[in-house]
Every structure is written in C-alpha cells, then in structure tokens.
Amino acid sequence: MDRLTQALRRSENGSPKEILESIEREVELFVGEAPQFDDLTMMCVHYIGNNPQKSGAFPSQEMTVEATLANIPAVTDFVDAQLEACGCPQKVVMQINIAIDELFGNIAHYAYDPETGPATVRVEVEEEPLTVLITFIDHGKPYDPLAAADPDTTLSAEARKIGGLGVFLVKKTMDDISYEYKNGRNILHIRKRISDK
Prior knowledge:
The chain contains 5 helices and 5 strands, in the order H-H-E-H-H-E-E-H-E-E. By secondary structure, it is of the alpha+beta class.
C-alpha cells in the first residue's frame, strides 16, 4: 500500500488515463519477470464536484481589474482556481499561465496607453471534451495582437525582428485563438482542451 500511495502521488496531476497507465507501469516494474498469478483491474474516478448546473458543467466565472502589469498575478490566480476546480493537468495550467502573461500584458501595454482602464477576464469550461475557454475584454483602442505575421523561427535570434514571439507561443500552445473588435471592445478568446474525454 505504501508503494501504491507513493506511485499515485507521483502521478496525481495526470488525467485518469495517465494515472492508470502510470500505475500499470509501476506494477510491471515491481513484478519484473514473475509470472502473473491474478487479474489486474483498475478504475480511476475524476470527481468534478457537485455543481448541478447544465448536467455537471462549470458555471462561467469572470473578474474585472485595472489593465496593469501589476495585476497579472491576480488574474493568473483567478484563472488557476477555475482550472484546479476542473482537474486541469499541470502542464496545461503552465501553458495557460504563459498565455495570460502575454495577452493580459499586451492589454496593459497597448489598450489604454498612456492611461489605464478596466479589463475583464472570463473563464468558461465546456464538457465533452473538457475544454477551457478564456476571454479577455477591454474597452481600449482597437488592437489585434494576431494581425502581425508570425516570426520566422528558422532565422537566428540576431536576424529576427524583435517582438512577436510571445503571441506566436500562445498560438502554438492553445487549440484556438481568435480576436474581434465589437461594440467598442477588444475581445480575444483562447481555447485549450483539458481532456479528450
């Protein structure tokens, strides 16, 4: 039981499928060449809470703060709390945190320059497959961070133009990213699949 507990702790941030595969590998390492003498049956349950809304779906959450670099940690903590509630793997959390840093940082730099203004971050979790949709909204001047061409990463760092790598990284790590300017608002969506189930 001690070894099983340790093995489970090593894979605690994985999806149910990843946890079961990890435990199966641990068992195979422990057994070695010994002949199998009994069946092996495993089941992993992912508990997502008892929120009765929309057949178990998570309610939309949002926060509005001043669009400043100093508020990036608060926005990140807010989003991470929603990701934790739906069992988001740590690797995906890190990718989303990098996206928040880049996208909210762009709002702080460009939306209201030289003043500041409000920015809203909305988190929605969709099911089947489990996916997180994060929306960034501000009332600043129109600014499409997706308009610039992607940097040519085949060039050396010295030969490349400065800038653009942050948004490029977000494009590469998210499943979808889109921008629109509507009703006097910049609206940027990023979508990331949390699980294939």
